[in-house]
Description:
By secondary structure, the chain is α/β, with parallel strands linked by helices. The protein has helices at about 50-55, 80-85, 100-110, 115-125, 130-135, 145-155, 175-190, 200-210, 225-230, 235-240, and strands spanning about 10-20, 25-35, 40, 60-70, 70-75, 85-90, 165, 195-200, 210-215, 220-225.
Amino acid sequence: MSTPVTNNMAIEFDDVVAGYKDFMILNNLSFKVRQGSITLLLGPNGAGKSTVLKTLFGLLKLRQGRILLKGENIVGLSQKQLLAKGIGFVPQGRNLFGQLTVWQNLELGGITLGTQLTHERIPEVLEFFPRVKERLHSQASALSGGEQKQLEIGRALLLRPSVILIDEPSIGLSPMVVQDVFKLLRKLADQGTTVLMVEQNVKSALKMADDAIALESGQLVLHKAADELLADPNIERLFLGGHVPGAPAMTR
Length: 252
């Protein structure tokens, strides 16, 4: 779906170099993400998609460059400081306390808010997740895969983030549940939340995303509207690997 071009950027990567010890995965990477949009990161395994999210959330140190959040350089901030700045991170896999109840997991998500404010916000968050709301006193491990992923997203929403980073939300979920998750992310973006996402179901994700960024060897291959990329005959090659000749980096 195409959306109007704006200069209102939520996230900017400026000449970023980052990786693990001496192995650099992101190599002079620059791109911008518009506020209130869903931007999909795609590319073959090892392209640097998840590394982008981890670097943005301060889990990896930059060797070079800047990362801006609404124009402010956030390099060097702790995860606690980034959460306070409005960045929420839903990593790949299951990241719940399985022996604790749904309610207790939500309480932990709001630990930086204090008990009173957390308890005020939990009902607000649960309105997005009626199935999870019905199981407040169940152990998190007893929830279905889809319910667990919804609980993870709900826990992140307690802090009312302006930016959500989400890594492979569809892993282990049925196609129907995946569509529910995508619809929720679309609703959040329509309400002004910026979503930066890594997702293996590329075609399904492109249908609800606004923009797409393709990476190769930690560098930008192209950046264009999601609906344009969905119609691109080179999409399979971009996802599976292999440079697309003549594909310019298109900023919006």
